[in-house]
């Protein structure tokens, strides 16, 4: 596709990505800023300041711990953590010894965690003490793990936090036998910088697990170059510099949230870090720390504006706010309301992107906003809309089809999944499974997913994964999962279940739902369960669309 969007490229944004310290791994940027501004806060966490020197030395200590544990370049390390300084330290530490970071959702239950640890062959898992009941039940079935590192929110919180805490952050620290304490690593391990040779283009920095277009999660392998290209692109577009103060509330385990863990370090900026979104904490953080940038979801902005004490706080330091439309879509009215509320801050749609591309494949030009669109393609981007049934046939402007894209942020493939890789990654192009179209100005419109992914409060839920998990219930013979509309969450999960004969009449839908709550992340848990004698199929292929059509007919 011709790059027709370049005619709308903003004049105040460079047309090439700015790598402020050159094309070097992200952790080398950290080292440079630690030497240049050692005492400058890299992170401010509820009042606790972690300087660039401390972040650099702490991640060196963690890297050396992993080496002493027996890990080598290319080994995988899981981060089963919420947003915290420990997450940043571990992330950079893993990469400093040549390891691969594997983010694990803090919402995971046992089956989900067990699957990803084993699929990646993780050698070490870093986790919160609060999550150890889950981890302990997984350990007997995860033979690749050489060690578990535990930490507490209390480890990095100041005695008198400057922002309100979420209740679980006040739970006293637990000592977990058989694990290595994170603070002890910071105290006892050497801070010498490990020596590792990194091939930016070919060495893997990150496994970002994603359902892709079908099935159980797959580890998208993202290179060290991808891991500086996309955060540098975001930093360039957003105008980050060493005096920027970037508020992070979106989860780091998600690739979009991770952009704003890495991009502040690339520019030597300060990360104002919050573990979990709270509207009062956001108001106070922006006011107290003179935040210049925030990445949010639209419901967060609405909650902040709706807080009863909102008028007490000064948000005039905010220069730019990117957001993601989860459940509530950004429109001109909300954007104008935010501009008035903050005293001039622009609220813009963040970007279109995927885990497979290190996300941020488009951006919204401030001077020419088209609400409802995903903006225009970003740096070094190639896009095309193709026929779903013939990927070689590119469709004309305005016509709907499958979004395919190629840029330096794209994955190397899925870990140990050659068939899935061959289906999704063709000649460097990622075929997304998403339906979209371009308009005559080169703005991308995302129209939904060809496959049957469900979007619950912004979280991607893949029917095949939920079905696989539900099939582990002793009463379930087979099941099919579809989305149903929900006023608050956008969509929720409904499961149609065929019971094993010996369980017929002996178990209720509520019992299935309660079991799911104990074994799945909250957004994956079926809200509705309906028992069926059989499921619609064509041969062995499950026909979810028939169930969807039946469900939709009930509301007509």
Give a structural overview.
- Strand 5 (124-128), helix 5 (132-138) and strand 6 (147-151) form a beta-alpha-beta unit.
- Helix 1 packs across helix 2 (52-69) and helix 2 (52-69) packs across helix 3 (85-96).
- This protein has 556 residues and is of the alpha/beta class.
- A 7-stranded mixed beta sheet has the order 2-1-11-10-12-13-14, with helices on both faces. Strands 17, 18, 19, 20, 21 and 22 form a 6-stranded antiparallel beta sheet that branches. It has a 5-stranded parallel beta sheet with strand order 4-3-5-6-7.
- It has 15 helices and 29 strands.
- The protein is 29% helix and 25% strand.
- The model has no long low-confidence stretch (mean pLDDT 95).
Q: Can you list the strand order of the major beta sheet?
A: 2-1-11-10-12-13-14
Q: Which class of secondary structure composition applies to the elements? A: alpha/beta
What about the largest sheet? 7 strands, mixed
Rg on CA atoms, Å: 23 Å
Q: For the residues shown, what is the average pLDDT?
A: 95
Strand content: 25-35%
The dominant shape is globular
């Amino acid at each position: 596709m011709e790059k027709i969007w370049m005619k709308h490229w903003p004049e105040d944004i460079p047309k090439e990505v700015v790598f402020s310290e050159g094309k070097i791994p992200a952790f080398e940027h950290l080292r440079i800023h630690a030497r240049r501004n050692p005492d400058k806060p890299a992170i401010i966490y509820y009042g606790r300041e972690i300087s660039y020197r401390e972040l650099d030395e702490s991640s060196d200590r963690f890297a050396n711990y992993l080496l002493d544990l027996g890990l080598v370049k290319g080994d995988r390390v899981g981060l089963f953590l919420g947003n915290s300084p420990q997450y940043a330290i571990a992330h950079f530490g893993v990469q400093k010894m040549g390891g691969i970071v594997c983010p694990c959702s803090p919402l995971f239950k046992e089956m989900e965690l067990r699957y990803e640890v084993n699929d990646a062959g993780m050698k070490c898992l870093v986790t919160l003490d609060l999550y150890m009941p889950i981890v302990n039940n997984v350990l007997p079935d995860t033979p690749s793990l050489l060690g578990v590192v535990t930490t507490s929110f209390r480890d990095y919180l100041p005695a008198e936090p400057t922002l309100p805490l979420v209740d679980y952050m006040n739970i006293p620290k637990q000592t977990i036998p058989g694990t290595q304490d994170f603070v002890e690593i910071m105290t006892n391990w050497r801070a010498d910088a490990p020596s590792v040779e990194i091939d930016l283009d070919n060495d893997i920095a990150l496994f970002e697990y994603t359902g892709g277009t079908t099935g159980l999660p797959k580890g998208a392998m993202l290179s060290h170059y991808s891991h500086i290209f996309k955060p540098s692109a975001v930093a360039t577009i957003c105008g980050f510099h060493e005096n920027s103060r970037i508020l992070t509330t979106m989860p780091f385990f998600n690739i979009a949230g991770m952009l704003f863990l890495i991009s502040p370090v690339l520019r030597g900026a300060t990360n104002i870090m919050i573990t979990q979104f709270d509207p009062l904490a956001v108001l106070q953080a922006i006011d107290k720390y003179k935040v210049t940038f925030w990445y949010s979801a639209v419901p967060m902005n609405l909650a902040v504006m709706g807080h009863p004490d909102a008028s007490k706080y000064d948000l005039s330091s905010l220069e730019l706010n990117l957001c993601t439309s989860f459940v509530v879509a950004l429109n001109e009215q909300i954007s104008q309301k935010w501009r008035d509320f903050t005293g001039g801050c622009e609220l813009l749609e963040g970007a279109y992107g995927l885990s497979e591309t290190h996300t941020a494949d488009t951006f919204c030009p401030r001077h020419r906003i088209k609400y409802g669109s995903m903006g225009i393609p970003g740096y070094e981007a190639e896009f095309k809309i193709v026929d779903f049934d013939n990927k070689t046939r590119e469709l004309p402007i305005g016509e709907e089809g499958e979004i395919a894209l190629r840029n330096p942020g794209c994955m190397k493939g899925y870990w140990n999944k050659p068939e899935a890789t061959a289906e999704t990654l063709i000649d460097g192009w990622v075929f997304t499974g998403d339906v979209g179209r371009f308009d005559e100005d080169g703005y991308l419109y995302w129209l939904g997913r060809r496959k049957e992914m469900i979007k619950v409060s912004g979280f991607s839920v893949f029917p095949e994964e939920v079905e696989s998990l539900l099939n582990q219930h002793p009463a379930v013979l087979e099941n099919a999962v579809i989305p149903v509309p929900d006023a608050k969450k956008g969509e929720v999960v409904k499961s149609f279940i065929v019971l094993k004969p010996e369980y017929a009449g002996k178990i209720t839908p509520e019992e299935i739902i309660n079991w799911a709550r104990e074994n799945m992340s909250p957004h994956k848990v079926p809200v509705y369960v309906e028992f069926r004698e059989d499921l619609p199929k064509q041969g062995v292929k499950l026909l979810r669309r028939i169930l969807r059509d039946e469900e939709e007919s009930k509301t007509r």
